[in-house]
């Protein structure tokens, strides 16, 4: 009897929350004719995001350093929107270097395509390795490319969004920006930095109807991923593999859908969703449903995480043993 009363109260509670959700969720934005600027748009997840944005009717600016790769991506993406009108343009700039040139080039790109409605910060790179083997310069490189590029691009675009009282900004972090992992010391730190930035900034810009989305992809099949596989410690590879390998299209579709809805977290896959709930901390709330789910699942996800942590420790122990055995037989 009491069980059924409790269950009924719980169901009513969930229904009330569900009805209240629209009160705190931002209004979805319309991508039709919107100007979407994508850093890192010439490759991998960024290029897949550009394709998806164009399919939904947006005009897209691709930003990266290498003009050859940009031109190649531009023609690929433009094929998706047959017609006379130019819907893809490129900007070649090193986002990590000099803010003034980023600002100038971004201003020029808005003369032709209009003010940026959605800025997606996807430019980034990973150089995995053990803490004491990664070149010291790579620690700075990760901060410059993964973090400072995002600061520069966002700084150049945000004033316009605040003035118009409309905008979406995406930071592409990583699951390695939610938990530190073997071999990702330099990379993880730069991706965690994005979270601090996103939470601070979201609080500042919410009154201007600007919404941030922080995306946490797992391993994703891209040229960047193929490159990092070459130097990745075996431990890092095995640990990352638990979360699966996603296609760039799959990741891009989820990020874009969450951006349109103004969700703060964008995660993919079961592990990704569990990890986001577990590590939601003090992050902004945009949906009561999401908040309820976080509250109800946090404890159980912590228990599950202990099993994962133990599994990761075993991987690391086994790899160490295997290496020592190999070195031992070499000496003999
Ligand atoms: N692939 C994966 O497994 C995962 C990736 N991520 C993150 O997603 C993002 C995209 O990754 P992915 O698609 O694999 O990467 P790719 O290496 O395939 O593409 C990276 C893009 O960023 C651009 N870029 C790099 N540095 C700069 C710079 N200084 N200034 C301007 N543009 C730059 C590159 O162009 P150019 O070199 O010409 O400048 C390219 O367009 C990254 O931030 C990555 O950390 C997160 C989780 C998993
Ligand atoms: C309830 C708790 C669930 C816990 C699940 C934990 C799963 C951890 C797997 C982490 C995978 C990290 C991939 C990083 C990808 C990346 O950023 C690089 N490829 C860089 O390009």
UniProtKB/TrEMBL annotation:
<keyword id="KW-0547">Nucleotide-binding</keyword>
<dbReference type="InterPro" id="IPR036291">
    <property type="entry name" value="NAD(P)-bd_dom_sf"/>
</dbReference>
<protein>
    <recommendedName>
        <fullName>3-dehydrosphinganine reductase</fullName>
        <ecNumber>1.1.1.102</ecNumber>
    </recommendedName>
</protein>
<dbReference type="InterPro" id="IPR045022">
    <property type="entry name" value="KDSR-like"/>
</dbReference>
<comment type="pathway">
    <text>Sphingolipid metabolism.</text>
</comment>
<keyword id="KW-0472">Membrane</keyword>
<keyword id="KW-0521">NADP</keyword>
<dbReference type="Pfam" id="PF00106">
    <property type="entry name" value="adh_short"/>
</dbReference>
<dbReference type="InterPro" id="IPR020904">
    <property type="entry name" value="Sc_DH/Rdtase_CS"/>
</dbReference>
<keyword id="KW-0443">Lipid metabolism</keyword>
<feature type="transmembrane region" description="Helical">
    <location>
        <begin position="6"/>
        <end position="24"/>
    </location>
</feature>
<keyword id="KW-0746">Sphingolipid metabolism</keyword>
<comment type="pathway">
    <text>Lipid metabolism; sphingolipid metabolism.</text>
</comment>
<keyword id="KW-1133">Transmembrane helix</keyword>
<feature type="domain" description="Ketoreductase">
    <location>
        <begin position="34"/>
        <end position="219"/>
    </location>
</feature>
<dbReference type="InterPro" id="IPR002347">
    <property type="entry name" value="SDR_fam"/>
</dbReference>
<keyword id="KW-0560">Oxidoreductase</keyword>
<dbReference type="InterPro" id="IPR057326">
    <property type="entry name" value="KR_dom"/>
</dbReference>
<comment type="similarity">
    <text>Belongs to the short-chain dehydrogenases/reductases (SDR) family.</text>
</comment>
<keyword id="KW-0256">Endoplasmic reticulum</keyword>
<keyword id="KW-0812">Transmembrane</keyword>
């Amino acid at each position: 009897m009491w069980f059924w009363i409790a269950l009924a109260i719980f169901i009513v509670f969930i229904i009330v929350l569900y009805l209240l959700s629209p009160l705190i969720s931002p209004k979805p934005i319309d991508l039709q004719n919107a100007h979407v600027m994508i850093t890192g748009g010439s490759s991998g997840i960024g290029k897949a995001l550009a394709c998806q944005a164009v399919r939904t009717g947006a005009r897209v600016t691709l930003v990266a350093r290498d003009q050859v790769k940009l031109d190649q991506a531009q023609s690929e993406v433009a094929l998706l929107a047959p017609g006379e009108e130019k819907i893809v343009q490129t900007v070649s700039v090193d986002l990590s270097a000099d803010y003034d040139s980023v600002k100038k080039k971004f201003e020029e790109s808005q003369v032709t395509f209009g003010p940026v409605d959605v800025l997606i910060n996807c430019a980034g790179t990973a150089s995995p390795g053990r803490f004491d083997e990664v070149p010291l310069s790579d620690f700075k490189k990760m901060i410059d490319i993964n973090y400072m590029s995002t600061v520069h691009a966002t700084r150049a675009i945000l004033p316009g969004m605040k003035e118009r009282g409309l905008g979406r900004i995406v930071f592409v972090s990583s699951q390695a920006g939610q938990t530190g992992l073997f071999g990702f010391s330099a990379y993880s730190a730069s991706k965690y930095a994005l979270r601090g930035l996103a939470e601070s900034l979201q609080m500042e810009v919410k009154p201007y109807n600007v919404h941030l989305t922080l995306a946490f992809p797992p391993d994703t099949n891209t040229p960047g991923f193929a490159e990092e596989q070459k130097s990745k410690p075996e431990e890092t590879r095995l640990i990352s593999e638990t979360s699966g390998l996603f296609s760039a299209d799959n990741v891009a579709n989820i990020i874009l859908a969450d951006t349109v809805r103004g969700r703060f977290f964008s995660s993919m896959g079961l592990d990704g969703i569990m990890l986001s709930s577990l590590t939601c901390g003090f992050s902004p709330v945009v949906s009561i449903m999401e908040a309820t789910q976080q509250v109800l699942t946090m404890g159980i996800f912590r228990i599950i995480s202990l099993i994962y942590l133990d599994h990761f420790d075993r991987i690391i122990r086994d790899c160490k043993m295997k290496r020592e055995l190999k070195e031992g037989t070499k000496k003999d």
